[in-house]
Amino acid sequence: MAQYTRNPPLNPEDLLPDPLAQLLLWIDAAGASGMLEPTAMTLATASATAAPSARVVLFKGLHEGQLTFYTDYRGRKAAELAANPQAAATFWWDQLERQVRVEGLVQKLPRAISAAYFASRPRTSQLGAHTSRQSAVVDARDTLDSRLLAVTAHFEGQDIPLPDHWGGYGLLPSVIEFWQGRGGRFHDRLRYRRGDAGWHVDRLEP
Ligand SMILES: Cc1cc2nc3c(=O)[nH]c(=O)nc-3n(C[C@H](O)[C@H](O)[C@H](O)COP(=O)(O)O)c2cc1C
User: Fold this and answer.
1) One of 6, 111, 123, 185 is an active-site residue; which one?
2) Residue pair 118/162 in contact by the 8 Å Cβ criterion
């Protein structure tokens, strides 16, 4: 059984007053630790009948206090978010023995923000976004590969525009919890909740 002993105790005065700034610090620390995907977060959504589903997406920075991520607006998570904008996300950084949990409402990002991000992506990723209908059933990999060839030929020599069906979302947190492992499973948990007077921090039992 792994013992979490890497970190000193975590107290409210060790964290920044703004939990989003604190999240960025922990992501930077995870990156510095050599993790492959320090921005990977598990995003949970729920259907209109409250059946949950979860998958990993990459956190792509903050926009007006929201955690952003990018995806196909026609996939399963998009359908669930359209029916129910409540979502939760977790980061887990094994090497740092730290977890962050986020809960809040999700909305689509402005098109200009998505367009700027799309333009920054590698061409192969741009072509993939035009080619794939995320979460749809496909009969075989060959079908996708030949569709990708056709899309690649179509855009030969041109800039690739942001597809109508693709873009970003922002998760506006109402709750953010910082968890740090301690020995004997006696971990530290500090939870920020958004109130009228700003963020309120509580310590939670492990
Ligand atoms: C490390 C990692 C990063 C991923 N990043 C993204 C991402 O940023 N956006 C995305 O749409 N899917 C991403 N995926 C794929 C998703 O986990 C998922 O397969 C996909 O979004 C379809 O989910 P859905 O059918 O629930 O909509 C990533 C997967 C992994 C393992």
Assistant:
1) 185
2) yes
Q: Does ligand 1 lie within 6 Å of residue 70's CB atom?
A: yes
pLDDT for the residue numbered 172: 98
The answer to whether the CB of 69 is under 6 A from ligand 1 is yes
* Cα 132 to Cα 74: distance, rounded to the nearest angstrom: 10
Question: Which amino acid appears at position 191 of this protein?
Answer: R
Please give, one letter per residue, the 3-state secondary structure of 132-193.
CCCCCCCCCHHHHHHHHHHHHHHCCCCCCCCCCCEEEEEEEEEEEEEEECCHHHCCEEEEEE
* Atom of ligand 1 lying closest to residue 72 CA: 11
pLDDT < 70 regions, the chain = none
What is 12-112+164-203's CATH number?
A: 2.30.110.10
**Closest ligand 1 atom, residue 37 Cα:** 1
Domain spans of the chain? 12-112+164-203
pLDDT at residue 58, rounded to an integer: 98
What pLDDT score was predicted for residue 5? 86
